[in-house]
């Protein structure tokens, strides 16, 4: 994995909102198309600080049953074929959901590393 802070080269980073189906496939497609880093938005119920497009994506995802548990399930094997950095972006309530799932920091790091 390239360390862009020391490599002194440009990185193309995109934000996507996690969805019920296809999040991992979108990540794979973006990597194949030379995206260097992906920020994955974890949908939550009160995205008021986000713009209207991200708000709409979060509402749609939640209405379709998206959850942090589903996202982790989608991404559990992502490191077998995706090497770019993945950044999970959430809100404080996501931390409580992670705790209730008994998800360890190492499990989260294995997705994001």
Structure report:
Residues 96-100 have low confidence and may be disordered. Strands 1-2-3 form a 3-stranded parallel beta sheet. The protein is an alpha/beta fold and 113 residues long. Strand 1 (13-17), helix 2 and strand 2 form a beta-alpha-beta unit. The N and C termini lie close together (9 Å). The chain has helices at 4-7, 23-32, 52-63, 68-75, 92-100, 105-112; strands at residues 13-17, 37-41, 86-89. Helices cover 45% and strands 12% of the residues.
In short:
This protein is α/β, with parallel strands linked by helices.
Q: What proportion of the residues form beta strands (DSSP E)?
A: 5-15%
Helix content: 40-55%
Strand order, biggest sheet?
A: 1-2-3
What about the largest sheet? 3 strands, parallel
Query: What is the 3D shape?
Result: globular
Q: Would you tell me the structural class of the helices and strands? A: alpha/beta
End-to-end distance, in Å?
A: 9 Å
Uncertain stretches of 5 or more adjacent residues: 96-100
Average pLDDT rating: 79
Count of beta strands: 3
What's the helix count?
Answer: 6
- Using the CA coordinates, give the radius of gyration: 14 Å
Q: Write the element-wise H/E pattern from the N-terminal end onward.
A: HEHEHHEHH
